[in-house]
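Message: A physicist's question: would you kindly supply an amino acid chain plus fold tokens?
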Amino acid sequence: MLKILDNWGAASEAPSIKISLAPNRSLDAHGTKVVFAVVACGFLLPIIPFIGSPIGTTLTIFSGLTFYLFLTLLQRNFQQGSTFEEILISKNKIIVVHQEKNKEQMTWECNPYWTKVHLDINNPKLKNYLTLAGKGRHIELGAFLSPEERLELRDKIQNALAKANST
């Protein structure tokens, strides 16, 4: 998901563009709770007629393990959704901040004049692999975005760099 705050036209401030990147989320916290409740009922209801029998014990064990696995994977998915990147491009500086949950925030800075945008269409790792190059380093951008969103992001960054270099 791309959120763009563009204030190149604001005369009172230094011209800049701020792009916030976040993974697409199909469920918010409330939706996750609803899915959790539906799956819990789906595992519990078939077991009720067999409570107290050996079959009920076996079903309870396997349903419990499957439900635990489901919760673990759901939690991991939810944590990955808190990853974000912010890109600030101004006349004098480009700053990229990458943050993942429970990890250290990484920041990269460079002069927009020396920054280049690279898009590798045939990358085996990721379709439309997007990187920024500058100061002798390459950094990956928007790995969690769809290929179409990475194309859009490349265009926005190239336009912003062109504006920054022309002022």
Q: What stands out?
A: The helical segments are 29-44, 54-80, 147-166. The beta strands are 2-6, 16-21, 84-90, 94-99, 106-110, 116-120, 129-134, 137-141.
